[in-house]
Amino acid sequence: MPSTAIVWIRRDLRLTDNPALNVALRYHDQIVIAYIFNDREEAPWEMGAASRWWLHHGLVSFAEDLKAHGGALVIRQGESLKTLIDLYNETRADAVYWNRLYEPAVIKRDKFIKRELGKNGIVAKSFNGALLYEPWDIEKEGGGPYKIYTPFSRRYFQLPLPGIEHGKPASLTFVKPSPAHLIPEQLNLLPEKNWHNEFGNHWQPGEAGANEKLKQFLDEVVLRYTTDRDIPATLGVSRLSPHLHFGEISPRQVWHAVQLYASFRQREDDVKPYLKQLIWRDFAHHLLYHFPCTSHKPFREQFVDFQWRQNEAFFQAWCEGKTGIPLIDAGMRELWRTGWMHNRIRMLVASFLTKNGLVHWLEGAKWFWDALVDASLANNTMGWQWTAGCGVDAAPYFRIFSPVRQGGRFDQQGLYIKKWVPEIANLPEKYIHQPWAAPASVLSSINFVAGKSYPLPIVDLSSSRKLALERYQALKSSGQ
DNA sequence: CCTGGAGTTGTCCTA
DNA sequence: TTAGGACAACTCCAG
Fold it and tell me: Which residues on adjacent β-strands are paired with residue A173?
């Protein structure tokens, strides 16, 4: 009687460097590869709309890859534990394997499932397929989790980075016939509204798309990363985030590819800033694991009582990219149209919402959660708390970005604005980041009507900055 | 246990 | 035009 393993796929939609899959292939004669959809088990952070779009196409792609290997992706919908037990009984399997995830609700569920499977005499093992090091692998000198990024990253460069232990399997032997299953379309993951129409122009979900992005990054970008990463109108970053989030490529693969590429050219120093971004990703997971409340509560306790403003109109304008501040609107529209936003602009729009608007960072975090194809609870939480100043390793309160100054520094010619806010593309460069400052004669010469061609600024940048400084300063003195 | 250096991403003003 | 200091103080972390 052949030995059978169930590989429970979650956010590890890949064949290469997939530890759970590899172990299943090594120790068993045949496998079932299953994906179980039940996002209620991830509450209160059920997948957002953009993530669902990605997942749909990621599943389609992964299912095709399996088909090419003579098998099927066994998609089911329902309670995860019950579905696994059903599959176990149907296929007379010997074991269930999966790669670990790190969101508090998912950890809780997976621990429960492992315990219940064990009670039923089912072998259940999990592996690290998503991080360079897992949150419990890394400790401070004196013990305990890190709270500051720099020492955390220094530790990484002292440690031996785990090698790619699992290449691409030469062949897969599937249980035949495949257990009954759904096709991705039956999960109804695609949104009803057609806002996502353009996503496909920017993204190719799936393992092949991930490798394509990595190749492009190595060929065209990585050696210029240190400078170009701050220019939002340039392809200066890897754009691997959604692929990493859904596990279509592993951070180990990326790390090694980048390092190997650089070492041949003796350019190790030039790629270090990029490698540090991969470490940031681990750091975010480290923080969420050790401080699980941070996804909904400020890490710094003073902030519990902070008087955020209920400002529906402001928030709405921010979401829609109609604040009248070009760089903010460009970012929010890039997000809406592509499901992604350049990281520098993420900081900028987050600073604008929480500081110039004094709107609660969670409001912004939730919008990002719904709109980003790379929405990751760890990264999103860390980023928002950092910007709002209430996080573990947060920005000092007086660090308030100015969209005008940032435009001058990182989008001097206004290329990013021209791309995403075309209605002001005719403005002279001098005013493209601040249309309100342009003289009437300049505006009329291009038939620009302030407030009609483009919104008037929803706040005065300078006075709202001042107000935020006062509020944050007051918080500091009252919080001690 | 003590100590001292350090901490992703900024802006504004002054000299 | 550009470089440097103020904006704060606190906690983290390694030696």
Answer: none
- C-alpha angle A367-A233-A379 in degrees, rounded to nearest 5: 35
Structural domain spans, chain A: 4-129, 131-164+207-290, 301-475
CATH topology of domain A4-129: Rossmann fold (3.40.50)
Instruction: Give residues with Cβ within 8 angstroms of A463, minimum separation 6.
Output: none
From the list A176, A131, A204, A30, the residue with the least C-alpha distance to A378 is A131
The gap between A128 CA and C7 C1' (Å) is: 43
Q: Is A340 helix (H, G, I), strand (E, B) or coil?
A: coil
Whether A148 sits with its Cβ under 7 A from any strand C atom: the answer reads yes
Dist. CA A419–CA A425, nearest whole Å: 8
Taking each continuous run of H as one helix and of E as one strand, the counts in chain A are 20, 5
**Separation in Å: B9 C1' and A84 CA:** 44
Give the model confidence (pLDDT) of A34-92 as tens digits: 999 999 999 999 999 999 999 999 999 999 999 999 999 999 999 999 999 999 999 99
Strand C contacted by A235 CB (< 7 A)? no
This prediction's pTM: 0.96
